[in-house]
Amino acid sequence: MWEWLLGGNQSISRSNVESALERLVEEVEPRIKLLPDGRRKLRRGVRRTLQYMHDMCEHLPDSLDLSVPGYSLDRRVGLLFASPQSLSDILAGSESLHEYFSHPSSADTVQLMLAMQPTESHRLGSALLPDGSIRKDVPQTVLSFDRHRFIAAGSTRDEAIRKGREHAFAVWCATLGDGMQSLEARQRLLKVERQALQLQLRSGGQVLNAEALNLSGVLDKDGAQQRLVEVERELAAGRQLDSLAGKLDLLRQVMEGPEEYIQARQDTVWVNRMGVLTPPEQGGQQLDYAEVLLGYLQQRRRVVFPATLSRDAWREWQQRWPQQEAMLL
Question: Where in this chain does the entry annotate a coiled-coil region (predicted)?
Answer without folding.
Answer: 180-241
